[in-house]
Amino acid sequence: MIKGQMPRYYIETWGCQMNEEDSEKLAGMLKKMGYTGTLKREEASVIIFNTCCVRENAELKVYGNVGALKKLKEANPDLIIAICGCMMQQKGVADEIMKKFPHVDIVFGTHNAYKFPEYLSRVKQDSVRVKEIVDKETEIVEGVPIERQSDYKAFVTIMYGCNNFCTYCVVPYVRGRERSRRPEEIEKEIKDLVEQGYKEITLLGQNVNSYGKGLEPQITFADLLKRIDRIPGLDRVRFMTSHPKDLSDDVIQAIKEGSKLCEQIHLPVQSGSTRILKKMNRSYTREAYLELVEKIKREIPGVSLTTDIIVGFPGETEEDFQDTLSLVEKVEYDSAFTFIYSRRKYTPADRMEDQIEDSVKHERFNKLIELVNNIAAKKNKEYEGKIVEVLVEGESKNDSSKLTGRTRTGKLVNFIGDSKGIGSLRMVKITKAQSFSLMGEEI
Ligand code: SAH
Ligand code: SF4
User: Fold this and answer.
1) Which domain holds residue 270?
2) Gap between the Cα atoms of 200 and 210, Å rounded
3) Ligand 2 near 337 CB (within 6 A)
4) Of 142, 237, 275, 292, which has the fewest CB atoms closer than 10 Å, so is most exposed?
């Protein structure tokens, strides 16, 4: 560290929006301790890796990256390295990291991240290594400072954990059982954000539709959406993720009637085959999902639907896979996150005998991607000539002469416009659709 300069932190985040929000909280705590952020590892006095373990790929990347930090530590013995997040909650992983990588100073899990300042102080004052993993979820800790990545849009977690135990998924094991934040706390956070000039918020939870269980007085997710829709000064509200089994008519109506609730629903289907959905413990059938989609499209014209799909789940036959392709064709998703099934230790699917060969998985994955991309391009084409509302987020990454932002339906738009519009809503005419974005001109 250069004398007289504020010490810097570097945080790298793998995985979902939940992890991103957790990292924003870690940044908030560091800022309160007098640190400032950097995008360069070499400049940092504190490096944090916030890990994900939802698929094997994510884990392998973490091991490679932690190993590579050894050189930085050798060059700067005062550097403090912390590893946290979902991967650390898995049996034995924290111990393995401590043993394998002596240059790591702090290891903690998802339930005790709010204690990071204490761990950092201990390392600095007592020159010790700290490993603390809490196995069970704790009470929700409110009031943790947060340093957000954007000045205009923010994530707001409304619930933690998951009770669904889909047979392929580690999330319930590493994030604990479902707990909902009190609506007053959520409203307060959003009102504060509006006061700071934020325009858009995304409500986060592993299954936002079951928000409110266990809270007194009773409240449903639809009730919460209606309350948030009344907050003055806020322009847009999104949410994710929505489990199809729990998406109520009330939520659909709230989106239909609300002025701030965006016409976009992320509705992970995972598979188009009822047989596989049953093995996945998803609690809905292909038919029920398609009916739900029809209802959403009928009630919310112009809605954008996105999804998550897994190929190569144990026992998936060619026929099951064809069911997935035909469902994708029927729904016509605006975009989809596609995943190759990854075996996760301790999950029921890992113990299923009929695991699919890698070559078959890859073949199916490529076919699915091609279909998803063709449909996404076709959906984008429908925007050509239309005038859309864009929340302007800044200059376009690839072309600084253009501005960039998103439509209410979540489409990325790069457009010619006035940079004074950054941070506000502007109307943009779409001149050309590309596969993954739209081009336009401000009107
Ligand atoms: N709570 C969210 C998803 C969280 S995990 C939901 O239920 O929709 C994000 C996505 O990762 C999942 O939707 C699923 O498609 C994918 N995923 C989870 N476990 C996986 C595994 N073992 N292999 C491949 N993909 C997986
Ligand atoms: Fe995982 Fe299923 Fe929970 Fe989503 S709903 S986090 S896929 S167990």
Assistant:
1) 153-381
2) 22
3) no
4) 142
